[in-house]
Design brief:
With 137 residues, the protein is an all-alpha fold. It has a domain at 25-100. The chain has 5 helices and 2 strands. Strands 1-2 form a two-stranded antiparallel sheet. The N and C termini lie far apart (63 Å).
Length: 137
């Protein structure tokens, strides 16, 4: 069989078991918000702090005669230190929130029916006696 441009041959390997979770929309939106906040804070921190260090090293090693230019470098370095520290602290303080949020979602899941490693399939669930048929009170 000759492969064409529309179809790419692929080998598929099946997994033995896949755990899935049902998530309500609010939790799904919460995952997005948590992940975005932590990632954004970390990205700004890792961008601002190296810029601040570079500007400080530049001010220490290069002679700048124009006071206006030197003041601009100082102001930018100071601003980068402040912003970098702020975002680093925010990222540090939120570092465990996503993990605990995900654990809360896992804890809300209902376990499958049946014994561990012997969960009942949907066809077996239909064969169980109902409460109305005398299985319950």
């Amino acid at each position: 069989m000759k492969p064409d441009d529309a179809h790419i041959p692929a080998k598929r390997y099946r997994l033995r078991e896949v755990q899935t979770y049902e998530v309500v929309r609010d939790d799904f939106d919460g995952i997005e918000t948590e992940a975005m906040n932590i990632g954004t804070d970390f990205a700004f921190a890792t961008a601002c702090i190296p810029v601040a260090i570079t500007l400080t090293v530049t001010l220490k090693t290069v002679t700048i005669t124009d006071q206006t230019l030197k003041d601009a470098f100082l102001l930018l370095a100071f601003t980068c230190y402040i912003l970098g520290s702020y975002f680093a602290v925010r990222a540090w303080r939120h570092r465990g929130h996503l993990k605990s949020f995900m654990q809360k979602i896992r804890d809300n899941q209902v376990a499958p029916l049946g014994e561990k490693d012997g969960e009942l399939e949907s066809s077996e669930l239909q064969k169980l006696p109902s409460e109305e048929a005398g299985g319950g009170k």
